[in-house]
Amino acid sequence: MEKLKQYINEKGIIINASLLKVDSFMNHQIDPVLMDEIGKEFAEHFKNHNITKIVTIESSGIAPAVFAGLHLNVPVVFARKGTSIILNNDIAQSAVYSYTKEHKYTVTIAKEYLNENDNILFIDDFLANGQSLLAIHKIVTDCNAKIAGAGIVIEKSFQAGVAHAEELGIEVYSLAKIKKLYANKIEFE
Ligand code: G4P
After folding, report:
1. What pLDDT does residue 98 have?
2. What are the extents of the domains in the chain?
3. 98 phi and psi, to 5 degrees?
4. Which of 10, 24, 112, 180 could form a disulfide with 187 if both were Cys (CB 3.0 to 4.6 A apart)?
5. pTM across the whole model
6. Measured from the CA of 21, which atom of ligand 1 is nearest?
């Protein structure tokens, strides 16, 4: 998606060889016009996949997921980080290790929102090491639902996430694929 690549080039800040900061339009401040276009692009790609629901993880996956849900006309479920006393006992959980933040956390979805009739589109802001995708795959499987595909805003193709998706047989559709990060340049695929 050319407009997204332009945003990344113009507004992204390279932190180091593996981290890109995109706080000005996605991870802190959100550009709703761009997110709407992103949602439309995911919807166009997955429109014939019989998607019944979108699943993401809070917090930065929610914006692209909601716009994709709007354009596909399906509900959006976000996995919560940690548990909440409001959630009852009928929950599916998985542990996520964040390489970026170097800590482990649990993600939770109430089972009432996913069932065997669901064909899930996973949406996330980044595909890096694939830990979020692995965790959501476990939760979706525990709920007897299936994953029809993954829509990723920014894929860092040089990290392990793509290989994990392949191992799980999940089709990944990424709007911007970063091959390599240099100190002053982003190389797209
Ligand atoms: P994963 O996203 O493939 O699971 O890989 P990883 O464990 O490395 O990612 C952990 C967190 O770091 C995720 O956000 C992910 O979106 C984010 N992340 C990964 N690579 C980058 C990057 O290059 N730049 C930025 N800005 N974020 C990156 P999270 O912890 O779930 O945070 P949030 O969704 O609450 O913002």
Report:
1. 83
2. 35-178
3. -90, 115
4. 180
5. 0.95
6. 26
